[in-house]
Amino acid sequence: MRSMTARPGTGLDAMIRTWRDRLPPSAAGLPAAPGRRTAGLRREELADLAGVSVDYIVRLEQGRATTPSASVVAALARALHLTTAERDHLYRLAHLVPPAHGAVSDHLPPGVQRVLARLGDVAVAVFAADWQLIRWNQGWAALLGDPSASPPRLRNFARDRFPVDESPARLALWPVAEADRDATDAAVVSDLRRATGRFPEDRRLAALIRELKAGNARFAELWATGVVAAHREDHKTIDHPSVGPVTVDCDTLTDGDGELKIVIMTAAPGSEDETKLRLTAIAGPPVTTYN
Predict the structure, then answer these.
(1) Is residue 17 part of a domain?
(2) Where is the HTH cro/C1-type domain (predicted)?
(3) pLDDT digits (tens, 9 = 90+) for 18-49
C-alpha cells in the first residue's frame, strides 16, 4: 500500500526509481553493454548490488513494500551511491531513524565507490572503523577467497585476528604470512582503541571489544597496554591454491570522518608476484562453502 502522507514523486517508491535512473552502470563498476537503452541501473542490477530479490525492488518501486529493514536500506544506499544526506532521507522515507553521526558507519560515500570502481582488478576491500568488512571486489576475492559465504557478522578482521572459538577464518581462506605478525596484532588492537575515542557511544564497537577481551587472551593482553595508533601498511605472502605464494604490499587508507579503511593489495611492478596476482584475477575466486 502506498504511503498516504508522501506527495506524488517524493515517497520511497519514487525516490528509489529516481536514484536508480541517475546512476550509470559504469559508476557502479558494471560493464557497459552495447546497444543498452537504459541510462541508469536496471532493476536487476540494483537488486544484485544490494543483495535483494528483483521482485522486492519491483514492490518497493511500485509502493507495495513501504517498510524495508534497516539492513536493506543500508544496502540500497550503498548500491545507489547515495550521499550521507540522501542516505538519511532514505531511512526516513522507510520510517526508520537514520544512523547516529556518532556511530560507526557502514555507508560508502560516492567518492569511495568511484575509487573502487576505477581500480579495476586491483585487490581492494573497505572496512568500517571497527574492521567490519563492508565491500570487496573480484580482485580481493580471487586473491584471498570470497567471503560472501560467511555470515555478515563474522566478516570482521579483528575477529579473524583474535578468534574466540575454534571457527575457521572468514576473510582469508588460505594461509597468509606477514612480515611482522606481532606488529600487525598490536596495530589492529590500537586501531580499535582509537575508534573508541571517535565513536564512544557505538554499541557494535563496544560489544566487539567486550567479546574479544573476554574470549581472546592475546587481545586482552594487547588492549591492556593502552596504545593508540592506526593501521597503515603491511607486507603479506598469500599461499594461493592456484598460483602458489604471492607476496603483496598491503596499504590501508582512511577516508574522512567515518574512519573507513580502504585496504589495497598490490605487488611490485614487473615482479613475478605481479604476474601471479594478475593470474588470480583472471582465474577468479574458487568456489568455497562453509560447513
Answers:
(1) yes
(2) 39-87
(3) 999 999 988 887 877 777 778 899 999 999 99
